[in-house]
Amino acid sequence: MIDGDTIEISGIRVRLEGIDAPELRQSCPGVQNNDWPAGRRAASALGAMAAGRRVICKSHGTDKYGRMLGVCWAGPREVNRAIVQQGLAWAFVRYSKTYVADEAAARATKRGIWQASCQPAWLYRNAQWSSEAERAPKGCAIKGNISTGGRRVYHMPWGRWYAKTKIEPDKGERWFCNEREALDAGWRPSGV
Most buried residue, 9, 85, 95, 106, by most Cβ within 10 Å? Predict the structure, then answer.
Protein backbone atom coordinates (compact mmCIF):
# COMPACT_ATOMS: atom_id res chain seq x y z
CA MET A 1 0.00 0.00 0.00
CA ILE A 2 1.37 3.42 -1.03
CA ASP A 3 -1.67 5.55 -0.16
CA GLY A 4 -5.46 5.28 -0.42
CA ASP A 5 -5.54 4.74 -4.18
CA THR A 6 -2.12 3.30 -5.04
CA ILE A 7 -0.69 -0.09 -4.14
CA GLU A 8 2.46 -1.94 -5.04
CA ILE A 9 2.30 -5.59 -6.01
CA SER A 10 5.51 -7.48 -6.78
CA GLY A 11 7.32 -4.21 -7.45
CA ILE A 12 4.60 -2.84 -9.76
CA ARG A 13 2.79 0.34 -8.75
CA VAL A 14 -0.92 0.12 -9.43
CA ARG A 15 -3.06 3.25 -9.43
CA LEU A 16 -6.63 2.20 -8.64
CA GLU A 17 -8.55 3.17 -11.75
CA GLY A 18 -11.64 5.36 -11.49
CA ILE A 19 -11.13 6.64 -7.94
CA ASP A 20 -9.20 9.44 -6.22
CA ALA A 21 -8.48 9.11 -2.50
CA PRO A 22 -7.32 11.91 -0.18
CA GLU A 23 -3.57 12.45 -0.13
CA LEU A 24 -1.75 10.99 2.89
CA ARG A 25 -1.26 14.37 4.56
CA GLN A 26 -4.77 15.55 3.75
CA SER A 27 -7.09 16.22 6.64
CA CYS A 28 -10.67 17.35 6.48
CA PRO A 29 -12.68 19.43 8.92
CA GLY A 30 -14.35 16.75 10.96
CA VAL A 31 -16.93 16.20 13.58
CA GLN A 32 -16.94 18.61 16.53
CA ASN A 33 -14.33 20.91 14.90
CA ASN A 34 -11.57 18.28 14.92
CA ASP A 35 -9.57 17.58 11.77
CA TRP A 36 -10.23 14.12 10.41
CA PRO A 37 -7.10 12.42 8.93
CA ALA A 38 -8.76 11.45 5.64
CA GLY A 39 -5.57 10.47 3.81
CA ARG A 40 -4.29 8.25 6.59
CA ARG A 41 -7.72 6.64 7.02
CA ALA A 42 -7.96 5.82 3.31
CA ALA A 43 -4.44 4.34 3.25
CA SER A 44 -5.14 2.34 6.40
CA ALA A 45 -8.37 0.95 4.97
CA LEU A 46 -6.66 -0.07 1.74
CA GLY A 47 -3.89 -1.73 3.73
CA ALA A 48 -6.41 -3.60 5.88
CA MET A 49 -8.30 -4.84 2.82
CA ALA A 50 -5.11 -6.23 1.31
CA ALA A 51 -3.53 -7.60 4.50
CA GLY A 52 -3.09 -11.35 4.36
CA ARG A 53 -5.06 -11.66 1.13
CA ARG A 54 -4.04 -12.38 -2.41
CA VAL A 55 -4.52 -9.15 -4.36
CA ILE A 56 -5.17 -9.42 -8.08
CA CYS A 57 -5.41 -6.44 -10.41
CA LYS A 58 -6.78 -6.25 -13.93
CA SER A 59 -4.85 -3.73 -16.01
CA HIS A 60 -6.72 -0.90 -17.68
CA GLY A 61 -3.55 0.47 -19.30
CA THR A 62 -1.05 2.91 -17.81
CA ASP A 63 -1.27 6.50 -16.70
CA LYS A 64 1.00 9.28 -17.93
CA TYR A 65 3.51 8.42 -15.19
CA GLY A 66 3.88 4.81 -16.25
CA ARG A 67 1.84 3.34 -13.39
CA MET A 68 -0.51 0.52 -14.19
CA LEU A 69 -4.15 1.60 -13.94
CA GLY A 70 -6.05 -1.27 -12.43
CA VAL A 71 -9.19 -2.60 -10.89
CA CYS A 72 -8.08 -4.77 -7.98
CA TRP A 73 -9.58 -7.49 -5.83
CA ALA A 74 -8.52 -8.64 -2.37
CA GLY A 75 -10.07 -12.06 -2.27
CA PRO A 76 -13.62 -11.68 -3.64
CA ARG A 77 -13.84 -7.97 -2.79
CA GLU A 78 -13.28 -5.29 -5.43
CA VAL A 79 -10.98 -2.83 -3.68
CA ASN A 80 -11.67 0.22 -5.88
CA ARG A 81 -15.40 -0.01 -5.22
CA ALA A 82 -15.01 -0.77 -1.51
CA ILE A 83 -12.85 2.32 -0.88
CA VAL A 84 -15.48 4.56 -2.51
CA GLN A 85 -18.34 2.78 -0.69
CA GLN A 86 -16.61 3.44 2.64
CA GLY A 87 -16.45 7.13 1.81
CA LEU A 88 -12.66 7.07 1.58
CA ALA A 89 -12.34 8.14 -2.07
CA TRP A 90 -14.19 10.08 -4.72
CA ALA A 91 -15.37 8.64 -8.01
CA PHE A 92 -12.77 10.18 -10.35
CA VAL A 93 -15.35 11.18 -12.98
CA ARG A 94 -12.73 12.98 -15.05
CA TYR A 95 -11.57 9.50 -16.09
CA SER A 96 -14.40 7.10 -15.24
CA LYS A 97 -18.03 7.09 -14.16
CA THR A 98 -17.88 3.52 -12.84
CA TYR A 99 -18.14 4.43 -9.14
CA VAL A 100 -20.59 7.36 -9.27
CA ALA A 101 -23.45 5.40 -7.64
CA ASP A 102 -21.11 4.11 -4.91
CA GLU A 103 -20.01 7.67 -4.16
CA ALA A 104 -23.63 8.86 -4.03
CA ALA A 105 -24.50 6.13 -1.51
CA ALA A 106 -21.52 7.02 0.71
CA ARG A 107 -22.43 10.72 0.51
CA ALA A 108 -26.07 10.01 1.40
CA THR A 109 -25.03 8.17 4.57
CA LYS A 110 -22.24 10.70 5.39
CA ARG A 111 -19.50 8.07 5.49
CA GLY A 112 -15.83 9.04 5.58
CA ILE A 113 -15.06 12.14 3.53
CA TRP A 114 -18.77 12.94 3.42
CA GLN A 115 -19.13 13.42 7.19
CA ALA A 116 -18.03 17.04 6.77
CA SER A 117 -16.69 19.38 4.13
CA CYS A 118 -13.68 17.64 2.58
CA GLN A 119 -11.82 19.17 -0.34
CA PRO A 120 -11.57 16.74 -3.28
CA ALA A 121 -8.05 15.34 -3.64
CA TRP A 122 -7.49 16.94 -7.07
CA LEU A 123 -8.26 20.40 -5.64
CA TYR A 124 -6.05 19.71 -2.60
CA ARG A 125 -3.14 18.74 -4.90
CA ASN A 126 -3.66 21.86 -7.02
CA ALA A 127 -3.61 24.07 -3.93
CA GLN A 128 -0.45 22.40 -2.57
CA TRP A 129 1.25 22.72 -5.96
CA SER A 130 0.35 26.41 -6.31
CA SER A 131 1.59 27.22 -2.82
CA GLU A 132 4.93 25.44 -3.27
CA ALA A 133 5.45 26.62 -6.88
CA GLU A 134 5.45 30.23 -5.63
CA ARG A 135 8.53 29.45 -3.51
CA ALA A 136 10.27 26.95 -5.79
CA PRO A 137 12.92 27.92 -8.37
CA LYS A 138 11.20 28.76 -11.67
CA GLY A 139 7.94 27.43 -10.22
CA CYS A 140 9.25 23.85 -10.42
CA ALA A 141 7.91 22.42 -7.16
CA ILE A 142 8.95 18.74 -7.33
CA LYS A 143 11.97 17.94 -5.16
CA GLY A 144 14.50 15.47 -6.58
CA ASN A 145 16.36 14.02 -3.61
CA ILE A 146 19.19 11.51 -3.38
CA SER A 147 18.80 9.22 -0.38
CA THR A 148 21.69 8.11 1.80
CA GLY A 149 21.62 4.80 -0.11
CA GLY A 150 21.96 6.65 -3.42
CA ARG A 151 18.36 6.20 -4.57
CA ARG A 152 17.08 9.07 -6.69
CA VAL A 153 13.53 9.82 -5.60
CA TYR A 154 11.23 12.76 -6.13
CA HIS A 155 8.73 14.25 -3.71
CA MET A 156 5.46 15.93 -4.64
CA PRO A 157 4.26 19.01 -2.69
CA TRP A 158 1.53 16.98 -0.96
CA GLY A 159 3.85 14.11 -0.05
CA ARG A 160 4.70 13.01 3.46
CA TRP A 161 8.41 13.94 3.31
CA TYR A 162 8.16 17.04 1.13
CA ALA A 163 8.48 19.64 3.90
CA LYS A 164 11.46 17.85 5.46
CA THR A 165 13.32 17.39 2.16
CA LYS A 166 16.03 19.96 1.39
CA ILE A 167 17.49 20.16 -2.11
CA GLU A 168 21.27 20.38 -2.31
CA PRO A 169 22.22 20.95 -5.97
CA ASP A 170 25.95 20.45 -5.27
CA LYS A 171 25.11 16.83 -4.31
CA GLY A 172 23.23 16.22 -7.57
CA GLU A 173 19.78 16.94 -6.17
CA ARG A 174 17.42 19.05 -8.24
CA TRP A 175 13.99 20.51 -8.84
CA PHE A 176 11.56 19.22 -11.46
CA CYS A 177 8.66 21.02 -13.10
CA ASN A 178 6.53 17.92 -13.65
CA GLU A 179 6.55 14.20 -12.93
CA ARG A 180 7.24 13.19 -16.53
CA GLU A 181 10.46 15.24 -16.41
CA ALA A 182 11.52 13.49 -13.20
CA LEU A 183 10.71 10.03 -14.56
CA ASP A 184 12.49 10.70 -17.86
CA ALA A 185 15.59 11.77 -15.90
CA GLY A 186 15.61 8.39 -14.12
CA TRP A 187 14.14 9.46 -10.78
CA ARG A 188 11.39 7.45 -9.07
CA PRO A 189 8.47 8.57 -6.92
CA SER A 190 8.96 8.44 -3.18
CA GLY A 191 7.10 5.71 -1.29
CA VAL A 192 4.59 8.25 -0.03
Answer: 106
